[in-house]
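Problem: given the chain below (324 residues), write out its structure.
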Amino acid sequence: MTLTKKLDGIYIDDSCNDEFDKIDGIIFDCDGVLIDITKSYDLAIIKTTQYVLEKFAKITNSIDVNFKIIDGFKSTGGFNDEVDLTYAAILSLVAAQKLQKNPSEFIFDVINNSDSNGITSVEKYLENKTDISEIKNQLSYPGTHHQNPLYQIFDQIFYGPELYQKLFLNKSQFSELGLIEQDDVILNKSLLDSLQKKFNSKIAMVTGRGKESVNYSLKEMLQKFNLNNSIFLEDESRDLAKPNPQPLFDSIKGMNSRVTLYVGDSMEDFIMAKKVTEMGSEVIFCGIIGTSKNPQEKLELFEKNEATLVLDSIQLLPKVLNLE
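Solution.
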């Protein structure tokens, strides 16, 4: 399939133009779609990795994780969970130190040998090269979410002391303002109103975030979503994490949507939508690339995997769906 640029920021496979008229439900991912997380979740990955390398592994001279590394792990389809990605980066940089390898080069070797199995594929690759048992034992990841040291550090850095205490009933060891405050909300009331005219109550969300976290950033706009059929995966069992198709399948079934547009920004989102189609629900995937550090690279990744619709931003949805 070949994507054709129709207008600025709109790329469509010509064979699918007629399909868009049949769409009667829309489901969104949150991070990178409704919210630009470059200065919030992505920065939490960077800061947590740096903190753990220094405090646990006593490594002070390693590279900082950058957005290219984050995008690299995410492009494998196995790292929708930011803490999984943080863990993979930590293991990779500890291994690079032990092997006396250039960390900037070695971490991309790890990425190139990772797949949709996520941290399992990273652990397997690294364990064939060196002993990483000490850092694995220290972090005991994933363990139980609220009791695991890596989750605790990440959540404290992301949520900040007040929200962390409210959510987890525990005191944060950090006093700095939470990075969630730097969430850049892309969604607005005007776009939601426009979508509601077409979809009524068939607007939902299937996201890796927890509900309280989404509510904190989207505020009253969250109430415009069909919350009975929205799924917040951080609040669910870990085995339901993307790209497990069951949550998206359940959301579609709950809304009784015949043809659903799923709007996401990652390979996990794309893989999940594809699996739901194989389960018998008709899903059109819409890839968002404008929040990526390298939109052209993300466009090429989606095109290579035969995505049929790619947009720079959700703000272009009304044009594609003939709502304006």
